[in-house]
Amino acid sequence: MNVLSTNQWITEQDKAEYLIPGWQRLVNLMSELCHSPGGFIVQAGEDDYKVIISHESEESPYSAGAMISTDVKMFCREVVQRDKELYVGNASERPEWLSNPKVT
Question: What's the CA gap between 88 and 62, in Å, rounded?
Fold first, then answer.
């Protein structure tokens, strides 16, 4: 039995009100511990990504609810494709990340 449907945005599902507050605390803590301006939970859709949770800071490049085209080189897509963790120290110094508008 699945807790969430994979063919509907998480934020539009009944269980979201129970899950999102805990996820928000987790993302905020992760971002603070890693001294990162942004931390996210992102859901992939057919044509877009949706930021479900965003680190609550002024420096965060995306807000919760933001829609991002699948054409954009995303850190989360790279994690899924590699099937392992990803750490990019300073993406603005790495040519492969300069196509991401939030990096440049």
Answer: 17
